[in-house]
Amino acid sequence: MAESPLGTLEWARADNGALSFAERATFRRAALRAQLAEIRARALTALAPVEGTSPRADTAPPDSALTRTAYSLAADTYSAPLLHHCLRSWRWAELFARRDRVRFDPEILYLACLLHDLALPNPVEGHCFAVTGGIDAKTRLLADGADEATATRVAEAIAAHMNIDVPLELGPEAHLLHAGAHLDVAGTRYTALPTTALRAVLADHPRTGFVTEFGGHMRAQAAAAPHTRAGLAWRAGMAIPLKRNPLNKLEAVARPDEPIGAPLTLPDGLTGVEAGPPDATPVLLLHGMMGGAWQFSWFQKALTEAGYRSLAINYRGHHDSRPVPALGRVRVADYVRDALVAREYLGAAPIVVGQSMGGLLAQVLAARGAVAAAVFQCSLPPAGIRWEGARNPRTMPAHIPAGLLRRPLTPNRAELDDLIFNRIPAADRPAFFHRQVPESSRAGVEIAYGAIEVDPAAVTCPTLSVSAAHDRLVYPRIGAAIADRYRGDHLEIPDAGHYALVGEPGWDKTAARIIAWMDERRGRGGATLDN
């Protein structure tokens, strides 16, 4: 009769998860191989996490009676550090599933991750806490109405997670729980996930107090059950990777304000965030280069409070929006088409507010008669107005190779600190930087060399050009020239930089002045604008 695989409930039946002498030797060898493989993986990436297109890190938990009950159990059982550990393990597991294209049952994975440490805080002499916890989870799930198959898969995943390796053959949920928990504890496969995703999860579920508390629990487990996987791992030096886990040093930054509206997917796969009353005056929000709908998280709150409906979109190739095979070759005209898709979704002609490059797109839409009014916030200029800032956009050394080869422009922290983040507190800048994404070099070249034509005579709607006194990317005189071009209004914000509307201190004052201008041009019924 074939032996049951190590870590399964059937294997644990005889000795409550204690390892035989031969199994202990095999476990030690597997642990050594895993440590060497991890060292090699980190060395190959020079200790730097992978960057580039990131799996989304904002997964919502599956909603069911079982998951809600399980969360209540976890919240009542765990301390805050352990609860955050279990939730981080679930988020890591989801990210690994997307990266490795593993198909799984979302409810089973969430339940297994959430409940995998049920028995950790209470050691039982001679018993493996993973096995005990798996059995306890199964009993509770069955009592809460889970079917036998679901409860068993959760229990098996929990029981197996202390193995050195959990192949897919033991179940996708067991494999992913193991990956997520081992990343969170020991940093295993840390280099496989982009820093942006890692930081986003840590912002939601901080590691405060985790290393100390988890280490104390593992020490107690090793004392109570030295021949279990947990006992052996701790006595073999598990404290070292726990303390040296790169996640401990990764700067856990707060995200910019979370959007208040509802995420949605538009035709052609574009994504966005919609907020405010559905029958109110619509406002279309167009983001800047390397940005996304998140740039309007603050402004959307102010718009909603003022009674406007707003839609902030992500252009193709940005964040989770429509993928493109060659981002570096995307043209400004492609982004204009994205904006027009969003405008059609809104129905009535909206007010358009564009940030930076989005301001230039707003000018194009205004010239096409597609909007009722337009606000150009720290806007890049059209043909006929030379783009001027603290650095010449035509000769930035970091961008020349990408422009020549039509490769994406990648965010550069020093450059962004100088040109865009200069009025954002230094402690907050990492949060903004890690929301930036690669951008089309072709679009950048088109704008820098004045290739985007806008006929000023075709712009007949009310316009407001907003400049910032300390904008180093686009000098405020450019905003004044844009206002003159369209015979519109000009507003210069003192003590503000390029992100005057994007979370800088005083953004709310900028928002209030823009909304006041919009209100003046909105009809008494709140649904039309005077031209």
From TrEMBL:
CDD domains: HDc. The keyword Manganese does not apply. Residues 78-170 form the HD/PDEase domain. Signal peptide: none annotated. The keyword Hydrolase applies. It comes from the Bacteria. It holds the Pfam family Abhydrolase_1. InterPro entries: AB_hydrolase_1, AB_hydrolase_fold, HD/PDEase_dom, HD_domain. Keywords: Hydrolase. One of its GO terms (molecular function) is hydrolase activity. PANTHER family: CYANAMIDE HYDRATASE DDI2-RELATED. This is Alpha/beta fold hydrolase. It comes from Nocardia bovistercoris. The lineage of its organism: Bacteria, Bacillati, Actinomycetota, Actinomycetes, Mycobacteriales.
